[in-house]
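Regression test attached.
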Amino acid sequence: MDTQSASEATTTMDRTTIERTSEQELVVTRTIDGPRDIVFEAWTDAELFRQWWVPKSMGLKLLSCEVDARVGGGYRLTFDIGTGEPMAFFGRYLEVTPPTRLVWTNEEGDEGTVVTTVTFEDRGAGTRLVIHDLYPSKEALDEAMSSGATGWNAETFDQLDELLIKLGSSSRQ
Amino acid sequence: MVQYPDGRLDASFAALSDATRRGVLERLGRGDASISDLADAFHMTLTGMRKHVGVLEHAELVTTEKVGRVRRCRLGPRRLEDETAWIEKQRRLWDARFDGLEQVVAERRRKERNDGHPKRI
């Protein structure tokens, strides 16, 4: 790695962006410091994947992580959410094209299947990731946003607390 | 910044100050339940659970509906987090996730360099 491309990388590295691009689509982007093939491996190798998919800040304990990243293969993660029965996150791989594209379904929601497409773009020393979630309907995305499985977890409540405290202090001024 | 009238805010504080009630919201986030389901899940009496649900209902976080002899509970119409807040929460989740990914990738690269024979897909 020469110095020029390293400094280029610093200027092109961007932070996480997220946008609802349509009634049923959500797009997340980020440029990761690291070559594309290793980044791709970190998404498809169970041992690597389990190390980062569940951030510590989520307050969830990962109980198991199975990843069979082949077309027709599946993934399944289970979590201890502190209420007895574990919560599962699972689906199937529809497309696995190293090191550029990964498509999978997420099937644990009541509102139907979400299809996630991840593209890996080479950016010199970095890799630009674009994660595209396609919900089955507007209602399904609305539902996820208002309450659904991703909506109410330990982190939600922490942030809800923060929000309430913020609102509380601003309304008392 | 979203502003809530003081009364609603106080009701929210009261409703969320209790661990059981937060647990009930989390449980209802995964599906509707009857009062007795909730009482069982949290090892409480029906009367005790009714009281908790009442507080959540007052704060508009939960709605209940009598179906036959059973009172069904579900998350309320009130959206404490609007779309913007949800999006920001997701952004923070992904941001934390990507920071972890970056570390995993860095470790992997160090390991490959040390091993001297890079394994590529």
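Expected vs. actual: identical. Strands of chain A lie at 17-22, 25-33, 61-67, 74-80, 87-97, 101-106, 114-123, 126-134.
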